[in-house]
Amino acid sequence: MHFTHSDPVALYLTGNIEILLLLAMAFVLYGLAAYFIVKRAQPEQVPTIRRWMWIGAIVAGLIFVLTPGMASKDLFVYADYGNLVGAHGANPYFTTPRQVAFDDLLTHIDGWSEASSAYGPVWVYLAGSLSLIFGDHPLPYFYIYRFLGLACHLLNTFLIGRILRTTGRSERTVTIGMFLYALNPLMLFEGPLGAHNDVFMSTLLLYGFDLCITANKRGFTQVKNYWPALVVLTLGVLVKFTSIPVIFFFLLVLAAKTLGTPHTPVREMPWFAAIKNVVIAGALFAGIALLAYLPFWIGHGLGEIVRSFGTPPSSSGAQNSLMRVAMNWLQLRPTMKSNSLVGFAAHALANRGFWSKVDILVMGVTILVGAWYAWRSPSMRTLVIGSLATMTIILLVTPWFYSWYVVWLVALAPLTLAFPQGRLTRALLVFCLVFSASSLLTYMNLVFFRFGGYQLGIRYFLMMLFPVLAGVLVYLYGRLKKDKEPALNAASVDMVTENASVAAK
């Protein structure tokens, strides 16, 4: 039984419902398993649970790698830009595959063949290198990028475990953190199956945070200790620029640690040393970015370079966002003018310039709040949670959104277990995990419900409603139960229990 009388459409819509129901079931099982690990698992069961977690992640990952179906053609976009650089020696920031490689098969199946690259140079270099090895046939890339996604997924799981263990968490908490990432259905769906470069970017961010924690133990304010972490984090930014908040918070924490806030009197603070450290770190970031872009910028004027950042569709268009909802609403009402309150709001929300101002405002406010938190507590907790919170807020206001962007949040969310958790931190963790489920609603097609032009609005508000509601409820519950430990904050309890067991032996 199908939902329409047109066979191709019926098959598509039926398949759409089936995959969403299967993913919903996967998230239910994921939630029940997480509950079992937190509430029911005995200490002696933890190693077995972690062993089966690894087996599950590898087996599920391989199944997704070998699945013939695709939810997104991004891996062919990566391959086409790589072919543009590797095979044709063209500049992906100032030319398009359609202009240079019109006859190549990759260009014909690339949905972005008429757009310049929106990705950073680190990813362009990687894609170009793969092109030199595997040529321009699409089939090898179908598996290469998927295997890369699986490899990064497994490496991310390992890095999360290492970070939690390095910060002194118990084996139970280490297992919880690894599980929340490794078997999250979104991560498997968008990593080994979707092969999105967001997973690769997350690998660099996690490794960068791992190096930050190591540097913090040796003396975070010394260049010789923090430069490896900054280099790796910079490489992550040069995959996708959306991770730039990590660099801002790195500089804020570095400055505050150098000043000795909040315990050192203001007049006694080493302001010169703090400014020097920030300038050196900022220059290192800028220098790496410039060196990475320089081969592509040679021969182009400053105006061309600035304009190149605005040419990709993601810099000027809208997808799965409030801006897109407003655009669709106005399309249904072509006579709507901006002289009324509703019309003015709709036209403003449908304007990319308005959202660019919102993005700048949000970034400015979050950096100011981050500076205040860094001043009060210049710690790795501020660096990690501040970066995660800022990237979360960016996704809430971005005009261009796809479900795989939530990969950034799910990769960093388990790191909150490495630090003492307040109400906001617990709410942020829950928000990210629920968002990983609700974001998949971007794949939902409501045509068979005959909602007409309103289906995007329904999808968008459902997608945002559940994580926001879950985060608010967790925060309010924390206020009502101040004296109780949160279920996910098992680290300190486990550590005491394990230490007591060791002492007894």
Automatic annotation (TrEMBL):
Name of the protein this chain belongs to: DUF2029 domain-containing protein
Keyword vocabulary terms for this entry: Membrane, Transmembrane, Transmembrane helix
Membrane-crossing residue ranges in chain numbering: 20-38, 50-71, 143-164, 176-195, 226-256, 277-298, 354-375, 382-398, 427-451, 457-478
Record flagged with keyword Cell inner membrane: no
Organism, scientific name: Dictyobacter alpinus
Presence of the UniProt keyword Kinase in the record: no
Domain of life: Bacteria
Coiled-coil residue spans: none
